[in-house]
Amino acid sequence: MLELRTDSVNFYRSEYCDDLNRRIVELCRSGDRVRLRDYIRRQDDAHPELYADERIENRPGMQLVKELVDALPGPVSVIDVACGSAELLKALQRSGHRVTGVDASPVRVARHRREITDLHEGFAEELPLAPATADVAIALECLEHVMDLDRALREMARVLRPGGALLVTVPLGSAADGPNHVRHFTVESLRQAVEHRGFHVLLACTIPYLHGEPDNNVFLAAVKLVDERTPLVLSHALNYKLLKLITPDLMTVSGIELTNLCNLRCRQCPTPFTRAATGYADDRTVAQALDYAAPGQLFSYHRLGEPLLHPQLLRYVQWAADRGVHPLISTNGVLLTEEIFLKLLDAGLRNLQITLHTTASTKAYGLVARHLLAHPEVQDRLTFVGNVLSHYDKVPEWLDACGITAEERRWLRYVQTHNWAGNVPGRRVAFPDDVVERRVRNCYFITGNRASIRWDGTVVACCFDSENENVIGRLEDFATLRHRPADYRLCRYCDANWANGDTA
């Protein structure tokens, strides 16, 4: 007999739909697994066929869970608690994921083990699995049946790796009530029960149980957070997919300006001349910006200014890497030392661009190039570029003076200097309508539905907007913000550059 914990968060229904329901609730209260398994077996023996509501095509919750799991960087290891007919496991296995199922019905386990080999008979309260072996735990239409809700959630937390995801559906209240439902849930009671067991809830909402029905089901997505160093790759991917499902036209953050202050005053850059307020991004703003970065995308810690001036740069690079977002730094290199470079690599830097403005910039380029040549394995995880702007005619002299060899020059990229959408003094040119239309049509930010974030949380239409002329809104309202190309005054002055895909 299963001993029920006195400190559990268990709760049972106080009203019953019939006498059988009352007996089942009492059976679950007692923790008598033998009698409960016998009851389940008799029920399954009487109904061996696949119920209509066990088919994925009929269940929005099952479809949602499959879409979420498939969106994770994978393949991932999945455990389905109370897997029933194993229909969801079969679909996930076809997607390439590693799947394991547990069900209290020996009839169902025996029937489906031919297709899902890693299938086990067992109860949610005592999962026959080793600790920290799953990336995702699924419990669909399960928790309304279990004997000990608290213990079942503890077990799911036990088998999940730190940072793993928990995906749950339960009936809402008495919706689709039946004799086997020993408790009723609301959105809030499910959230509280899951949070009580150390999970961080990303989303709890109502959905239909079957297509065509009203919202009579509760869906919940949560992650297992252990400490501040818990891997966040799965949780970030899950959270981002949920955001995109809720708001399909949600913009993506391409990066954030850590500061618009710089240690140089270059004539082709608007930074020394900007009239905008100056400052440094704080932890909250950077964390919010990362929430809206797509998994696996490049995330730029540069817009105006010099990112190496920010005292928390290493932490922010680590934050992005922890989430499976690829941090990019574009720097003038003056402050880059070998020690800082190695720390950035260790933090997870994936893309480094040094623009050769001075001999100090050129020396920084050289130290990175020499490191990559000496450590070719680093080239597999770091993209490196040395930008040579067209108006700098002294770069060849700097390269020679700094002893940069022909082999070390392989990462140099020669690019046309642009006018920062006319925000460099004396370089504003109004282009004809057909040119502007072509550039808007090909704009990196508009076509990719991306936005750039200033250090203070202002959301702007592109990274060239040094004077905040094309402001979309504030980061705290990001989910509601949209591009408005007709209002973008700077597009009239944007010359040919990488962002508008125009070289003419």
Helix/strand layout:
Blueprint: H1 19-30, H2 33-46, H3 60-70, E1 77-81, H4 87-94, E2 98-103, H5 106-112, E3 119-121, E4 134-140, H6 149-159, E5 160-171, H7 187-196, E6 199-207, E7 217-224, H8 233-246, E8 252-256, H9 283-291, E9 298-300, H10 313-322, E10 326-331, H11 338-347, E11 351-355, H12 359-374, E12 383-389, H13 395-401, E13 412-415, H14 433-441, H15 444-447, E14 450-453, E15 458-460, E16 471-474
Parallel strand pairs: 1-2, 1-4, 2-3, 4-5, 8-14, 9-10, 10-11, 11-12, 12-13
Antiparallel strand pairs: 5-7, 6-7, 14-15, 15-16
What does this structure look like?
The protein is an alpha/beta fold. The chain folds into two domains: 228 residues, Vaccinia Virus protein VP39 (Rossmann fold), CATH 3.40.50; 249 residues, TIM Barrel (Alpha-Beta Barrel), CATH 3.20.20.70. Helix content is 30%, strand content 18%. It contains 15 helices and 16 strands. A seven-stranded mixed sheet has the order 3-2-1-4-5-7-6, sandwiched between helices. The protein has a five-stranded parallel sheet with strand order 9-10-11-12-13, covered by helices on one side. Strands 8-14-15-16 form a four-stranded mixed sheet. Strand 4, helix 6 and strand 5 form a beta-alpha-beta unit. The longest helix is centred in the C-terminal third of the chain and has 16 residues. It is elongated. The termini are far apart. 41% of the residues are buried. The model has no long low-confidence stretch (mean pLDDT 92).
